[in-house]
Specification:
Blueprint: H1 9-23, H2 29-35, E1 41-48, H3 54-70, E2 74-80, H4 84-92, E3 100-103, E4 106-110, H5 114-126, E5 132-140, H6 146-160, E6 165-169, H7 172-181, E7 185-188, E8 208-211, H8 222-234, E9 239-242, H9 268-280, E10 284-287, H10 290-298, E11 303-305, H11 312-321, E12 327-329, H12 335-346, H13 361-368
Parallel strand pairs: 1-2, 1-3, 3-5, 4-5, 5-6, 6-7, 8-9, 8-10, 10-11, 11-12
Helix pairs in contact: 1-2, 3-9, 4-5, 5-6, 8-12
């Protein structure tokens, strides 16, 4: 990158440590910013999760790495979602024209995860004179209910206040909905976890790993899962169950009112690596989680995908993974046919290579156009 000035490693390490201390409440945002070189252009990423969903956690980790790789000259500041109000108040007092803002990607724009949507509205409606980016998201407003329509209207009001806001859609269903709902610019970009390098396993693989939802997006019932497990076990497969949530950390929305500790930023990679080890040790994964599919893709593990309640898994499959020989999406829940699909996936000897880098070109160009 011509003209890029790279930050000395010692300074970068100190900045990361100060950012950790800020997210843990040991420094105010103002104190943190006073410590860093003042000539650095700043990018503030809001919405960083402190709850136990590893998919959302790894989006945050991948975004940080994305900036480190592509924009090393920027001061990249992670702001956790519980810090939203205080951070907005502090930044309003020291805002620069060159500052840029983002809100983390994921699957929570809409009327179903209002703790996230309310925080997002505040950020979008505040920094209206600065570049603001909603990183790759899926959207789900329930237009069949008055409450869903009301929440959509509130988001339209908030997003509409910011003429410098760009929304990134991580699948075409969301891209079309963004265009329908909002007047802001829209980009089509892959989920940020796909920006990570492939992390394939080298050891022996064994059995089938089921990564299944236990929340409101679940469409595969417990009885069906029991039937599938029995069919696989009767055919000689060892079947393991897991999920992409960390059970000993605070749940979404309970970070400040839970006996369980929030998940700290410096814990993300270790917990993610442990989950990837589970996946890499398996011959085949069965999942209804988008990030169950994505984690399987980046570990090059054959995976059979069921949909979630509003289509983000199947649409993401169609957009990004349908050409990969080791990823298969199905609506067929017949235990016999699922078993056949597992056998077909297990038989794959060489997996197709990954090629997602260019899906971020428009996002990179947008940020590049605002560098000073």
């Amino acid at each position: 990158m011509e003209g890029v000035s790279f930050m000395p490693a010692e300074i970068e390490k100190k900045i990361y440590q100060w950012n950790l201390e800020y997210t843990e409440g040991k420094l105010s945002l103002t104190e943190f910013l006073s410590k860093v070189p003042q000539q650095l252009q700043r990018f503030f990423m809001f919405g960083i999760p402190t709850y136990n969903n590893l998919g959302d956690q790894m989006i945050g980790f991948a975004q940080r790495l994305f900036f480190r790789r592509n924009f090393p000259q920027l001061l990249y500041v992670e702001i956790t979602e519980p810090q939203t109000d205080a951070a907005i108040a502090e930044l309003k007092q020291q805002l620069r024209a060159s500052d840029m803002f983002g809100f983390i990607g994921g699957g929570n724009i809409g009327s179903f995860y209002l703790n996230h949507e309310r925080a997002r509205r505040k950020v979008f409606a505040t920094f209206v004179d600065n570049l603001t980016i909603s990183f790759p998201q899926s959207v789900n407003f329930d237009e069949t209910t008055r409450q869903g329509q009301k929440e959509l209207g509130l988001s339209q009001d908030a997003y509409g206040k910011n003429p410098n806001l760009t929304l990134c859609a991580r699948e075409t269903q969301t891209f079309r909905r963004f265009q329908k709902y909002f007047d802001n610019d829209v980009l089509f970009t892959g989920d940020m976890v796909l920006s990570l390098d492939p992390l394939p396993g080298q050891g022996d693989r064994e059995g089938v790993l089921m990564i299944m939802r236990h929340d409101d997006e679940k469409v595969t019932g417990d009885d069906l899962l029991a039937q599938l497990t029995k069919e696989l076990a009767d055919s000689g497969y060892t079947v393991h169950q897991t999920d992409t949530v960390v059970p000993f950390k605070a749940e979404d929305g309970q970070e400040e009112n839970s006996a369980k500790e929030p998940l700290r930023l410096n814990e993300r990679w270790q917990l993610f690596s442990h989950k990837l080890d589970e996946i890499r040790a398996s011959k085949v994964v069965i999942t209804d989680r988008l990030h169950g599919m994505i984690f399987s893709v980046i570990t090059q593990t054959p995976v059979l995908v069921f949909d979630n309640s509003y289509g983000k898994a199947s649409t993401s499959y169609d957009n990004w993974f349908a050409d990969l020989n080791y990823v298969k999406q199905t609506d067929d829940t017949s235990p016999e046919n699922v078993l056949q699909s597992v056998k077909e996936l297990e038989s794959i000897k060489r997996v197709d290579p990954l090629a997602f880098d260019h899906s971020y070109d428009a996002l990179k160009n947008l940020i590049n156009s605002h560098l000073v």
